[in-house]
Amino acid sequence: MTPSRVASFLRGPTSSPAPAPVARRGPGHPHSLRFPQSGEGMRRASVACSSTSAAGDEGMTYKGAGVDIDAGAELVRRICKLAPGIGGFGGLFPFGICFDHLIIVLLNSPFVLVPTRARGRDHYLVAGTDGVGTKLKLAFETGIHDTIGIDLVAMSVNDIVTSGAEPLFFLDYYATSKLDVDLAEKVIKGIVDGCQQSDCALLGGETAEMPDFYAEGEYDLSGFAVGCVKKDKVIDGKNIVKGDVLIGLPSSGVHSNGFSLARRYCTFSIPPVSNLYTFIGNDGITTTVGEALMAPTVIYVKQVLEIVSKGGVKGLAHITGGGFTDNIPRVFPSGLGAKIFTGSWEVPPVFKWLQQVGNIDDAEMRRTFNMGIGMVLVVSREAADRIIEESHGSNPAYRIGEVIEGEGVHYV
């Protein structure tokens, strides 16, 4: 690939594992918003929505919006036949040698030495990779670009922490038809922010300029994270038993899944987002529907690792595409399922709005969106009492269900 097509550079390594804080730009901290528990405190303005079905017709589905979860599951099943051992939230790789530094080789780049916080044959490297899906479309329409990088980091580090792994470093890929340096800087600042929140280094990245490949003003993102965990500390769900408790950690909203369905009926570019549906939180903060949907994905790394360090955690599920219905069973041994207490946590109003305007039934909502819970911990009863008792302030936790005999997820 010629220099005119690709700008390849190394954005790192940083001098310390956590990148320095960066100035935030754009709308004021949408991730700090709190939403009301009921329809009170919300007001409706003009919302640009369209529907091809008459009132009372069958509700909208994720598959109808163009995303087939069953097809994705079938692809994973086939890949597992080709490469046995994959299928978890993160992939584990045993260390082959003892070392004080991890040597990373990047194409077209020099060697980079990264100090490791774990050494020797008794550890696994844990890796995860992801993008942010069609949430990018909403970023283009709203003009909110300074937090989409947080989403990108979150989607990978939240996956690898489900093994009990501590993130070490992150790399990103940014692609566009014509490089807008100011826009790219906003996106990368979000990535740096996400790395800071997860206490990992932004080791490097790739910026690709590909004329005519993307629409004007648009870009694509992907990235991956690598972490490590001691072999005797891996969380794999094998010890989960009937009667264990499900603890839910709240989300900031939709996070980075389900936007193909969320965008199916509603257009946010005309009229301006500021004139659309708004939410007023219990603390008096008002946000538009666009800002609520763009609230960055919560990065659970520090909270989860602190809980794990105190013992009793047997399994972890990052609630992304597939919602509760598909993600929670991934951590269970055969023959076990989950009972979810649907009234045990606050469902953010943005989900109620999506369900209303899309005429989406409960089962579809639970299989598409996180519904206000972004991470689920499967813990012993003793650990559950301690976790709930110690949760407070900005890091709440809810007892949302329990492990039962059977298969699947049951809602009560």
UniProtKB/TrEMBL annotation:
GO terms for cellular component: cytosol. Coiled coil: none annotated. It is an enzyme of class 6 (ligase). InterPro entries: PurM-like_C_dom, PurM-like_C_sf, PurM-like_N, PurM-like_N_sf, PurM_cligase. CDD domains: PurM. Residues 242-408 form the PurM-like C-terminal domain. This is phosphoribosylformylglycinamidine cyclo-ligase. Keywords: ATP-binding, Ligase, Nucleotide-binding. Residues 1-41 are annotated as: Disordered. Residues 121-229 form the PurM-like N-terminal domain. The keyword Ligase applies. GO terms for biological process: 'de novo' IMP biosynthetic process; adenine biosynthetic process. Its EC number is 6.3.3.1.
